[in-house]
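The records we work with from here on pair a chain with its fold. Taken together, the tokens spell out the fold as the letters spell out the chain. The record below shows the convention in full.
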Amino acid sequence: MSRYWSQLAASIKPYVPGEQPKDKKYIKLNTNENPYPPSAKVLEAIRSAADDTLRLYPDPTCSSLRQTIARYFGLSDQQVFVGNGSDELLAFCFPAFFNPGGPPILFADITYSFYPVYCRLFSVPYETVPLDEAFRMPVKQFFKSNGGVLIANPNAPTGRFLELTAIQAILQHNPDSVVIVDEAYIDFGGESAVGLVKKYDNLLVVQTLSKSRSLAGLRVGFALGHEGLIEGLCRVKDSINSYTLDRLALAGAQAAFEDEPCFRQTTAQIIRTRGETVKSLESLGFTVIPSAANFIFISHQGFAAQALFTQLRQRGVLVRYFKLPRIDNWLRVSIGSDSEMTAFVEALRNIITT
């Protein structure tokens, strides 16, 4: 701790991302990255954009990309906001829609661990809604007075998907609150809430190109919602940094939306691999939570999750372990390629049969 830190810097507990090792090569199933390369059209677009125009600032309104996303989802470009990854967009949401002195915002007790970090950073009060023992969302617990609602769907780290009827019920019971649906993993089996955007002016849907579009390294996220919500995000963004996306990211992101066959093929393969992996793990005695994401949440009654995590790492396989209440005997495992998942299952088989 430095004596020059502000009281805020000294008091916050930052989010800790998944390990990015540099000491040796691992089978990396700990950060929900896509095991397959991005579209060849994306790479060509980035190469083409890497010219002498890099001396110029990018378009601060990201108009071309916003128009492309709007066409893709059947919206207007005034209903689209883009930024430097969905994490940045979520961070903008807190000062845009939630009040430090207002009633608490609501989110699940087991969900994306960045949410409470943002609350502490922006002094936004919050209340967690406990999931049931099977990590299912108690929807009616969101039908009470609040300062906003934040739902990861599919949820992280559990992978469970909340049906659109439940999302719609939450929207109907919270007409005076902004309901944010964080759909980072929606393309791996869930049904997006984007279709509700035109019906509910308090709905904001946040997505990313990091997962299903294989572009975690490009850092592009987007939000879809009523024009008033988008304007609120723009006001916050332009008070911090008007140029959140660089020229290469803009070019690559637009190309990603223009190669639908690549996107469909990649997500379909991950879904198939997920299903095969679940069957293999269940045959080894693992409990696997039903997942609509590109990861699975697993536990074994006979083996502690932390011990499995350590032994897998020793065998060159990285997964994610959260030493937190209620989930400290569970592991989150990203879905890799077929060969990676076969090696992962075999490593577990060796551990539990030794």
